[in-house]
Amino acid sequence: MMTLASTGRSRAAVPENADISSNRTTPPGASTSATVVSLSKDYEHALDLAKRALKAEKLIALPTDTIYGIAGLAQSSSALQKIYEVKERDIGKPVAICVGKAADVHKWAYVDVPSGLLESLLPGPVTLVFRRRPELNPELNRGTSLIGVRVPNHAYMQKLAASCGEPLALTSANKSGGQSTLFVEEFKELWPHLELVVDGGRSSGLSEDVARLGSTVVDLSQPATFSIIRDGSALLPTVSVLKKFGLTNKQELEIEILPHMLLSALERLRGT
What we know:
alpha/beta; 12-stranded mixed beta sheet; 8 helices
């Protein structure tokens, strides 16, 4: 079983006897101990329960602007370990973080892009990959100097991340390798391992096939260039914005250079 070193962080703000699982409900056919709260019926209560659960280093499920996600505090090694265990995810596969607004990205990543680019993409259905700052939990995505950052175009998620005052580790609400989810009923098998399930109805207004692709993932860790790691649900508009700000598609550049490299190699062979 995977183990992660404890950060030793104090959670004194959450009393040991705090009841963050009041008003639990169990929908028909579900065997779970998780609290299920309707976002449309009790928005503020859903916000309060989620914050308290996260601060207690528990996991929650919630809607984003694409698919449903599982979240825990990124600065809590205990929460990170639970994410990997619940999803049965390879420890070598990284997870992204979620922050409340574009300006918060600078707190956790080194951002070297033209002024205004972040605000043109965020909030939105994109994950932007940068070089990580040392302030980020070293147990998060060990072995890589990069970090993917999200600011979903979803008011609830933005408010929750802002209220926590620290980044959330965010990944899809499904077993590793399984289908992404648009409704809470689609990941019932995970409910017994979660403290809270925030039911926001269908998670995205996009068509089902497009929404299930998740966010578009873009590597912006190298100055003046970008590369697409995952097409996701917003590929074309994202690439359009990046090129508008003068960034070069590293993958296209490599394709253009390759024939010249081959020709040069052939000429060298002919000259021998």
